[in-house]
Amino acid sequence: xxxxxxxxxxxxxxxxxxxxxxxxxxxxxxxxxxxxxxxxxxxxxxxxxxxxxxxxxxxxxxxxxxxxxxxxxxxxxxxxxxxxxxxxxxxxxxxxxxxxxxxxxxxxxxxxxxxxxxxxxxxxxxxxxxxxxxxxxxxxxxxxxxxxxxxxxxxxxxxxxxxxxxxxxxxxxxxxxxxxxxxxxxxxxxxxxxxxxxxxxxxxxxxxxxxxxxxxxxxxxxxxxxxxxxxxxxxxxxxxxxxxxxxxxxxxxxxxxxxxxxxxxxxxxxxxxxxxxxxxxxxxxxxxxxxxxxxxxxxxxxxxxxxxxxxxxxxxxxxxxxxxxxxxxxxxxxxxxxxxxxxxxxxxxxxxxxxxxxxxxxxxxxxxxxxxxxxxxxxxxxxxxxxxxxxxxxxxxxxxxxxxxxxxxxxxxxxxxxxxxxxxxxxxxxxxxxxxxx
Length: 438
What we know:
- Helix content is 48%, strand content 12%.
- The protein has helices spanning 78-98, 106-120, 145-162, 172-185, 203-206, 250-261, 268-272, 276-279, 290-309, 318-333, 341-356, 360-377, 383-398, 402-419, 425-436, and strands at residues 11-16, 20-25, 34-39, 42-45, 65-66, 74-75, 187-190, 196-201, 209-210, 216-221, 224-229, 240-241.
- The strands form 5 sheets. Strands 3-11-10 form a 3-stranded antiparallel β-sheet. Strands 4-8-7 form a 3-stranded antiparallel β-sheet, covered by helices on one side.
- A hairpin with a 2-residue loop joins strand 10 and strand 11 (224-229).
- The longest helix has 21 residues, at 78-98.
């Protein structure tokens, strides 16, 4: 296998003094300009979106047809089905064999596809112009016992569901490294409202280092990752992406980065902590009692972790879940201001539950409380802000608040034209929705 070329036009791979290998610009890039695009090395559509998206190209459409064998995978046409067959074949056989007992995690499904691809692809791929998948960091030496146990459970699931359909599965040591590499370097593909569509590996995109004040953003066009400038880039500037949700204060971000990616962030935002005071704002009439405030922050962080673990709502749990959100907001609201990020997190969860319950008025009320603080806390051209404006726009239109709906959609559009590019089909869809209201 040839070595990676180490450059994509307008960029070059380099070794920085404090972050190791990274990517920098060798020419000027304007805000909104495409820096580079990277097709997925391997990817998998999430089970929850089957029937709504094509498994091969991730196109969203209503007239998909399903695989005749497993009746689980859906495609645009015969060409898409043929294109996916080399990867879908093993999953198709496994799903037919296991029926309702087929339940590997998305990470296991992705790793199975990577193993299969590595068996049939010996040349450097178009996804590896800067970095080869085999050169990913695994950080195995930094993994704690919990992560190691999760890794071993994934390996066991891979053997259980796929051993009959993949010849010569790598040994457990190799699998341990591969799962660790995928967990540290994998990406989740999301739609314009940040709903989870699937998981993928984009080696060249993984080369970029992290900053809590990123100068680029990663968005998706089908199964291709596109990297666009959200700040002016000049020759010599390091190209920096964000690995995490940037809503939270510095200490929370540092904890998350250390836990998931095994490094301590030293970016300018972590140094200045310029937004922390507003992010953990206390009610004006509350005397600053550090112990009470710290206790409430711990309570909020524990709640966030609980919600992270319970990723999927079950209809039977929705009313009590909404009640939990409201009770938590009352408790935190005795100390925290409404613009405090922990309050916003709980409002976002409550809004999500309202949307699932089709309580459009309730969802709209939470969205209205969230949107302006979001615009302040997040960096410019944030997808989190754009997706909230989109959700609000759709809620307003559904509730026949046409003027407010169009205004919200236009605000979403102004961010999306930079983040996704003016020629993206998400942008075209929002423009069409605005036109329909005239």
